[in-house]
C-alpha cells in the first residue's frame, strides 16, 4: 500500500472530516495527518468530536508560540522517518513549508501543493510573485479550491497537474430537506475588517427603511471588531433587528441555517469561503461578492445565489430585499439547486480526487 502524509497548521473539523473520509472510502493509500500546533491565531479551530483517524499534533500550544526553526526541524525529521510516497503541503507562505517541499523533492517524494489563494485575495508585488513562481518548482501537482486558484497558478507558470475540489466539507452533516423559506438572514464570519461585516450593516439599514416587518439578521462569529460593530448597530438603530450571536459550534450553526432565507458573505477578500459549502449543503442560497473564491464555482445567479461587486452596499441592499420578497416556490427551487450543486464538493468526491492526484503526481 502507498503511503501519504498530509500537513496542516492545526486541525479543524474540516481537516479531520477529510482525513476520516480517506480512511473510510478507499484502501489504496495509507494516510498520516500532521498538524504543527494545537491552535493558531487566524483560524481558531475547535475540535468538537474525536476522530477515528490518528491525527498527530507536534506542538500542544498556539503555533505563534513556536519558532519557525523548531517547526522546521521537527517536520523535516518527521518526513525523513515516514518513508512516504506522497506529501501534501498547505502552501508556500511559511519558510518551514518551503523547506519541507525542498526536502521532499530531494528525497524523490511526490509533493502536492494544497492551495486556495487567488490573484485578488490580497495585494501582490511583482517580486513576490516571481519568488512564488520559483518556489512552485518544488511541487509536482496541486490540489486546489477552484477556478480562481487554477487561474492564479497558471499565471505563476505552474506546469504540473492541477485538480480542483480541495475545499470540501461534510455535506451530509449540514444537509436538511427544506420544506419552507426561513425567517431570517444570517452572516457567519470572523469579525475582522477583511470580512466587511460593517458593510452588511450599512446595507441592512437601507433594506430596513420603509419596511414594517424586515427580517432579522443574525451575525455568527467573533473577532477584534465586535465592539465596533455593536456600536454601529446602535448608531443605525438596528438593535431590535440585528442580533450578534457570537461564536457558535457546528450544531448551533446548523440550527441557525435551518431557519434562514440566505447567507450573506460580503468579504473584500476570501480565498474560498467554506461557509458557502455549508450553506448550500443546508439548502440555503448565498449572497456573496466577486472577491470570494467559491463565487465562481458554487454561486450561480438564480440557482444557488447571487454574486455582487465587492463593497457595493446598494447592490447588497437590493439583493437582501429581493430574497426577502422572493416567492416560496422560487426560493424552494433555489434551495434544491443548492443541494444539487454542492454534491460536486462532497467528501466522497474529495477522496476520489485525493487518490487520483496521488496516482498522477
List the helices and strands and how they pair.
Blueprint: E1 2-8, H1 13-25, E2 29-39, E3 55-62, H2 68-82, E4 86-89, H3 95-106, E5 110-115, H4 126-135, E6 141-144, H5 147-155, E7 162-164, H6 171-174, E8 184-188, H7 197-208, E9 217-220, H8 226-235, E10 242-246, H9 250-257, E11 260-265, H10 274-281, E12 286-289, E13 305-308, H11 313-325, H12 328-342, H13 347-360
Parallel strand pairs: 1-2, 1-4, 2-3, 4-5, 5-6, 6-7, 8-9, 8-11, 9-10, 11-12, 12-13
Number of domains: 2
Report, as a whole number of angstroms, the end-to-end distance: 16 Å
CATH architecture field of the largest domain? 3-Layer(aba) Sandwich
Share of residues in helices:
25-40%
* Structural class by SSE content: alpha/beta
CATH superfamily of the largest domain: Glycogen Phosphorylase B
Spatial order of strands in the largest sheet = 3-2-1-4-5-6-7
Q: Helical stretch count? A: 13
Q: Main beta sheet: strand number and arrangement?
A: 7 strands, parallel
> What is the 3D form?
globular
Q: Which structural traits does this protein have?
A:
single chain; 361 residues; alpha/beta; Rossmann fold; 6-stranded parallel beta sheet; 13 helices; 13 strands; 20% strand
What does this entry look like structurally?
- The protein has 361 residues and is an alpha/beta fold.
- The chain has two domains: 2-168 and 346-360, Glycogen Phosphorylase B (Rossmann fold, 3-Layer(aba) Sandwich), CATH 3.40.50.2000; 171-344, Rossmann fold.
- 40% of the residues lie in helices and 20% in strands.
- The chain is built from 13 helices and 13 strands.
- It has a seven-stranded parallel β-sheet with strand order 3-2-1-4-5-6-7, with helices on both faces. Strands 10-9-8-11-12-13 form a six-stranded parallel β-sheet, sandwiched between helices.
- The model has no long low-confidence stretch (mean pLDDT 94).
